[in-house]
Amino acid sequence: MAFSAAAASTATAFASGRRISASSPSQQQMLRHSAQPLPFSRSAFPRAVASRAAALSTVRAEATKKSVLIVNTNSGGHAVIGFYFAKELLAAGHAVTVLTVGDEASDKMKKPPFSRFSELTGAGGKTVWGDPSDVGAAVGGSASAFDVVLDNNGKDLDAVRPVADWAKASGVGQFLFISSAGIYKPTEEPPHVEGDAVKESAGHVAVESYLAEQFAGSWASFRPQYMIGSGNNKDCEEWFFDRIVRGRPVPIPGNGMQLTNITHVRDLSSMLAVAVENPAAAAGKVFNCVSDRAVTLDGMARLCAAAAGAAAVEIVHYDPAATGVDAKKAFPFRNMHFYAEPRAAKEALGWASTTNLPEDLKERYAEYAASGRGEKDMAFDLDDKILAAVGKAPASVAA
């Protein structure tokens, strides 16, 4: 299920031709057919796709096998990035240690992706837990044991500096950082591309500046947006499924034509892996870590309905101010145009996206259905407040 005509029209209206990178026919064909389930195998990570196989074949063949430390957050949507990145590296023959913040006995570790860490250790990876402020103690040695360090935890300089300083003091060859596309200032000319104005007060910006000073040409930063994928523990597509499977209306703020970017996490991990294997190409650069297609908020609801096998979905638009509801609490995405383009990754790394949102959402719905979440009791108090405010009776179906 592709963009609707209305969504495509909106995309054109809000993005200049100069800033839209149209996919070639071969890339479009690849995007339609590339999404596959993700068992642990080399073939499960479709990085050598047709559109960039030629450009990367020499790099992949000659890439030195490296030892990589991933400092991974223990919560939030970014946690799954470290998990997929580790799997990608292990499949390519690299050595991987994952340092997860906190305690292995924590209840957080009972949830994915942490509950699936046996997939990493079973492939030869190492998993440890500890405090990144004393990363040396946590990993039991000097950073000289690692060629590459990825910080997928800190959101400000206080959190990242201890890891960065430890890595620099030990002569680590490459330092990578997971930043956020949320640091861009709103623009009249979406999508965001690397070099657009950022919010100087954002913690991620201070980190990027510090890394540029400390690591010169041996650092790179990656700015993701929303992501999906098996093992993700942050509700995005599940929010839509929760309503669709119960026959409830889906309340969406605004007119539903706001554009956003939703990327399968395998795209994020493949971009990071290419940077590890071709550090010269990534040196000192910032990358929007996103797919190359946007989707409207209404379009996301319809794609989720299609993935769930629903014949239709009822969408209810509302004005958050008029209904007295905080859209940040009532809806999983920003109530605005918010999407970026992976221009730098395409140009510098020869990377290409494999996200196929309609197919990837089918994978996510299969996991949702298997979990039994659709049969659980669930309250929709904010939804009912919105529905009442716009003159619709709260849904009478089971909540």
Automatic annotation (TrEMBL):
Gene3D superfamilies: NAD(P)-binding Rossmann-like Domain. It comes from the Eukaryota. Residues 76-289 form the NAD-dependent epimerase/dehydratase domain. Transmembrane segments: none annotated. This is NAD-dependent epimerase/dehydratase domain-containing protein. It comes from Urochloa decumbens. The lineage of its organism: Eukaryota, Viridiplantae, Streptophyta, Embryophyta, Tracheophyta.
